Structures are given as structure tokens and as C-alpha cells.
Amino acid sequence: MVFENFSQRMREIIREKGFIEPTLAQKLGIPEIMKGTNVLIIAPTGIGKTETAMLPLFDKIYQEKSKAISLLYVTPLRSLNRDLMDRLVWWANKLELEIGVRHGDTPQRERAAQAEVPPHMLITTPEMLNAMMVGKRLREHLKNVKHVVIDEIHEIVESKRGVQLAIALERLAELAGNFQRIGLSATVGTPELVANFLAPKAKVIQADAQKKYNISVECPKPGPKDTLISDDLLINPTTVARLSALYELIKAHTSVLAFTNTRETAEVLSSRLRQLDRELKQEVHHGSLAKERRIQSEQKFKSQQLKSLIATSSLELGIDIGSCDLVVQYLSPRQVSRLIQRVGRSGHKVGETSKGVVLSGEEDLFESTIIAQHAMEKKLEEVTVHEGALDVLSTQILGMCFEEQDISEEKIYKIVKRAFPYKSLTKKDLTDLLRFLESIRLIWLNPSKQGLTVRKTRKAYDYYFENLSMIPDTVQYRVISIIQGEPIGSLDEDFVAEHGKPGEKFICSGRAWKVIQVDGNKVIVEPIEDIESAIPAWEGELIPVPYEISQDVGRLRRFIGDNLASEASNLTEKIKEKYKIDTNSAKEMARIVEKHKEKHTLPDDKTFLIETYKDFVIIHSCLGSLVNDTIGRYLAAILTGKTGTAVTIKADPYRIMMQTTAKPEDVKKALQEAGNVEEVLSLAIARSSLFKHRFVHVARRFGVLRKGVAYDRINLGKIMVQYDGTPVWKETLREIFVDKMDIAKAKEVLEQISKVKLPIEEGLSYLGELGLIHQFAEIMKPAMPHEEIFKAFRKRLLTTRVRLLCMNCADYNLVKEARAVDEEPECPKCGSRLIAALHRSQQKVEDIVKKRLKKKELNPEDLHTFQTARRSADLVIVYGKKAVVTLAGRGVGPETAARILSRMHTSKEKLLRDILEAEKTFARTKIYWS
Hints:
seven-stranded parallel beta sheet; Arc Repressor Mutant, subunit A
């Protein structure tokens, strides 16, 4: 048994802990780790990956009496830091070893203590490792590092954080010599690639063969009760049916984790569950919540004070959340690895089966079915690495300049080339980048006999520490409904910069809205019904669906289409034999395929369809998010050039939707005669809003723009022209091609399309209709009826608190809601009806009126305030309560109120409409006032 290879003391502790039989991961991993091998350990959540790595390392440190800091444990999330500390401190205490945690929130006092008396093991993040590397005292301690463990390595590898970590590890190797590298993960699609990322020839230890997953897909059918509830909750019956199914699953289990793809959906689900049952112990958990609240929710769930947590990706990594007996995925998880990671949170102990249910509906059903099947077969997506990222390399070059004054270009090149993402970097690439960094005064270059040497400038310190994080730094804007006057959601600065102009339409909180004005960090909006032309606010958040998943969805469609001639019951059984889904899911998919085939060709893995509807041309193509987006942008560029008018595209994994004046025949021709794809896209993307947004983030990482600088404070157009052709420009384009496109696969598909039949059909097909609807919302609420709008506005207006001030005696000064004002208000002190209706914050007006009544002279500002109050009082004398209600409108002063009231409205609704229009005008024009 592998435990016998440990020291006597470690064997005693293992017995005390109750570890009797090692897990498969421990049997395979511990001997290799004890030999000092670089290893990637792949094992399911709850199977003891952490102990596999840490027990032999703890034992080595204990036996060899290693100096601090001898072990670094790198995790992608701070929450994992907290969890690990709790798990590992028990073992460390028994061996009299010290463990410390260091991340962005670590207090300065604790950081100073770590520098003075470092722990044997330090748990940290990629960003903090980079910070520690340039600290004088900590660098001395880091020379002792013998082992580095990278937890949840799959989460790091595909992002720029992974690229940053890869070079940082090579910098650490320059300092500490070759150390042992251990990667841990529950899900890796391409193990050999991740192993090479970790270290050349690192050994892959696959210990996930025994793990079993039981994942079913359910499509709850709405009943009469759901229809009744939908009216109360303001969501459609099918969503209520899913919500009710989630509620029943939570009640039927001990602890349920429910995952959604967006924070907004998590919030909406949690609030609707609360409306269904206020006694249900459930909370929401996502990255936008305060750290303290997230920790509290995790602890309450772990101790079973909560029945359920409604979460996003914030809980899909290996935080110990105790005993969870079911994971529910609300709608498709969009990727297999995400579903496995999430479902793996249930059945968290060795030998247990992880149980999950995907609640799905309509077209989403096909995708959910395929992903659930792939998950149970453990068919994961391939890993993509950001190769040659220039912005990350710039930061790392500056880090090396801190470590060694006048470092040679040759040495930088040698260190960087060892990092997997830079294996293809040429000497010319590096020299060009160094020249650019010198041009923006981050470094000085000096020729020497050995070649160029590099020295940092004064700007380097601020630049390096501002750019430790590779996560884009975005400003959030609050979306405020002018109807209720309350926040309805938030948008990031990229979205507002592109779509924040008055009149633009977008989706937020499941409804369509039109921008009235952007005021500071607020976006003032009004509800509209024009869903089709609105832009989803979370467009950038959506996880891309892989090509292979979309192709299998096409095969599923084809299987159902080929068997439609069977009796309904036989077809349902045939589908259920192939896939683990409930009866209603099978019936629903058959219904969708049959309804589509009534009038249109069925698009599948081999068949494409072009259809026309109004000014839309929809290309049905089961090619996945990245390929469809690539082809869609290519077509938009070609058709815009031919028609001279802009083409709007919206792509999803199964179709490309275009609003264009081009004829469908032109679209077909552009598809079948495609060429120079990369060249066309490079030119087109450079003019796109996507490029503009990415350029800002990349420019910040290069130090060309300071972190936190708002869009409206810079001349972005001028800056982009200035940096055309520079590494900033090249990196922006490279990043977009990696994250948002798949040019190689798009070229391959376009070659196939040139040889196949492409039918063009008129009218909106059923799958086309589902695409337009699905594009806009996961939980789309019905359009807000006019009566509901005015009801909400009327409530807000009548509950607005106004200040009533008697202009005759100034002794009556009272704040009350507009609805509580008498029809013909008068002063209870003197009986006068000369009552001014003011904003409740205008407390000083009373002093001004009293001063005037005493015939004292007023300064120009006070005189203006008095005259404005007097004009409002004149309106109240004539129009009574109507004037008070009108003046309660935001930005409605006496002049505007007089114009509104003079129209002598025949109904309250007409008066409200005019007050609302006045508020909109005020919101639009307020920013121009001095």
C-alpha cells in the first residue's frame, strides 16, 4: 500500500485521520510524486486529489526539514485559498509545519509577517506569485521552493492568467532551480497538452475511470397551475414549469446546488423561488456579491442551514461545500467540461455517483441532451492555449527587469522560450516588442558586446503592479427604469460605449429597453416591446458551444427527422433508448422537428438552409458558436462591401442571423465563393466594436491606457490610429481570433459548403423563430403591457414625497406623498391656498420666504429660488392636487408643469403620459445643462 512508503509520523497521522484504503488517484499519484516526477493528476471532485499531492509533499518537507518557503500551492480563486487552508492546516499542525495564505485581500500586517518569518507552504494565486517575485525579502525565501502545485489547472490554462503563470514559473526556476511541478484537475479535454503546459514530458495520471455520473435531461410540461402562476410572476408558463420542477427537486433532496449560466438568471430564479415559497431556505451565489456574503452562504449550505444555493460558475470549482446530493443545471451548460465540473459537486465522496438533472426546454433541449450524453461518456472539449500573447509578455519582461538590472535580451528570450505558450516565439518577435516598450518609455535598451540589455524606467513599477491581473478591468453602469425610478440591472462599460446612445435598444432583466440617456454611471431607460431589434446585454458573457456539440445536435435532429414516420410512441421510445431524457423531452424534440419540417428543409449536421423573413436572412448551420460567428462576420464584411449598407449579424451555435438589404442569392453566392477569409476578417474586425472593446483592455495591459480610465475621457479613435500596426494592435487581433473565432474550422466548412446544395426558402421556419426568441433571453418576461407601465409609473409618481410650503406665512412646511395631498390644498395655519409644491430636499426655501415676507433684500440666487417657488404655488391655486402631482415628476419645474397642465387633460392617463414624456425630455437634456 502506498501509505507504507511514508515516514512513521505521517503513517500515524493518516491512521488518525481515518484514511484506511488509498483512492485510485493516491495509488497512482503518490509513488510518482515521491520520486519527484512532474505530474498532471486528473481525478474527479471528492476523490482526494489534494491529499494525493500534499501528503507526500508534507512528508518530504517534514523529513528533509526543508526551509521556508519550500512549497507553493497556486489556485485560480481566492475562495479556494480559504477552503484549502481549512483542509490542510490539520495535517500541517500534526507535522509542526506552517501554512500561509497570500492573495489580494491579505492584510499588510500579515504580508509583512510572511516576509519576516515565512511559512513552509504558501497558498496563493497567479497574480500574487508575480507580485512576490519582485519583493526583495520574499525573493530570498522563494529561492527555497522545491515543489509547486497548481490546482484546477484546467481553469487557468485556457486564459491569459495561464500564460502569465507559465512565464512566472520559468522566472521562479531561474531563482530556485528546477522544482517539482504538480497539476490537479477534475476535467481536462486534452491531457497531453495541459501536461506539456505544466512541464516538458510531465506524466499524465488519469484516475477518473471509476467515477460515474448519472445525468438526466428533463423538460417540465406546463400545466394549468403553471399558467395561473405565470401571470403572478410575470414569466411565461414554460419557465414556471421549469421553476416548479426546480422547487420540487429542492424539496425532495437534502442539499441541492442549482447552476445557471448568467448572474442575472441566478438572481431571477432565486427571487421567483422566494415568491413561490418564502419559507424555502435558499440563497443566490455569484461573483458580483460581496465576499463576506458568499462565504456566509457557503458555510450555511455546508452546515445544511440552506436547502439550496442558486449559483453561477462561482461554485463550480473544488470548494468544499459539504454533502450535496443533487446538482440541477438550469438550461444548457453549453460545454461538457462545465457540466461535469458542476455535477461533480454532488456525490462528493469516493465511490459515490454524481447525480445531476438538466432542466431544459424547446431548442435548448437538443443541446442539453447531447452535452449530458457526452458528459456521461466523458467526451470533453479540447483545450485552447493563448500562444504568444504580447501583452502578458510585456508585463513579464518588466518583472524580469526588477529581478535583474540590465538583463540581456538573450536571457529574456531563453526564459520565455521555456514557457509552453511561447515555444514558437522568434527572436525578431521579442526584439520588436522590446523596441515598442522602449517607445512607450517602459524600458531602456542599451547595446552591448553580448547584444541588447534591458533596464526598467521609472514608469515600470506602477505599470507592473497595475497589470498583475489579466482579468479585464470593467466599469459597471446601473440601468435605471424611468418608470419605477429603480435599478433593474447593470451593464459593463464595453456595452455602454457601443450601445449606450439615446434610442438604442437592448435586453436586460428579461425585457427590452430603450436608452433615454447615459447620466454619469447610470443608464436611464424605458421599456419597449421591440424585442427583435434589441441587443442582448449579456452577449459577451455567453459560453461558446463547441463545433462538435452543434454537429451532434444536427445528428440528433437528423435521427428524429428520419424516424418521424414512426408512430409517436415508438419515436419517443427510440429517442429515449439513445439518450437519457424524460418522455416529455423526447416528445418535445419530435414536435419541434415535425413542426419545422411541415414547411421547411431540416438543417442538420450535413444540411444547411437559407431562409428569408422581413429584412432577415437566416443561415441554419450546426457549426458551433465560434465557427458561426467567424462565418457571420466574414459574410457581413463581404455583403457590406457589395450593398454599401451595414449588415447586422447575430450568431448562435445553430444559425447566423443577418439583417441586410442583400438578396438571399447574394448571401448564397458569398458563402459558396468564399476566399481570403483571414485577410477579409482582419480588415473587417479592425473596424468593429468588438475590436474597439478588446483594444481598450489590451492597451491597458500594455500601459498605453491607465487602468480605470473611462471611455468618455479618451479619444479612442485617435489612440487606435496612433497604435495601428503596433504590438497593441496585433495582440488585440490575435486575442479576438483565439477567443471569439475559429478561422481554421471556418475555412474547412466554407470549402465543404462550396460543394453542397444550399436551399433558399421563404418565410420564418419554426427553428428560425426559436432562434430569434432564444437569442434574446434565457428568462424572457412578456412585454410589459401599457397598463402595467402606467400603473408602475403612477405608483411611483403618487408615492413621491413632496414638500408643501405656504408662501403666505411660511409657517406651514410639511413633506408628504403626492397622493396624500388634498384636492385643493390650503395652509392649516393661515388658511391661504398659496401652497408651493417643492422637492423634498429644498429645506432652505422656508428661510428665503420668511426673509422675503420681512421685506429683506434677497441675493440673485435666493430671488430666483423664491420666484420659482411662487410660480409653483400659483399653479397649485389654479389646478390643485393635479399641479402637485405634475410637479412631483423628475425634472418637472413650474414652466414645464404649466405647459402640461394647460392642456386640460380629459383623463388621468393622458396627464401621466405627458408627465412621463417631460421626465424623458429632462433625462435626455440634463447632461447639457450647466
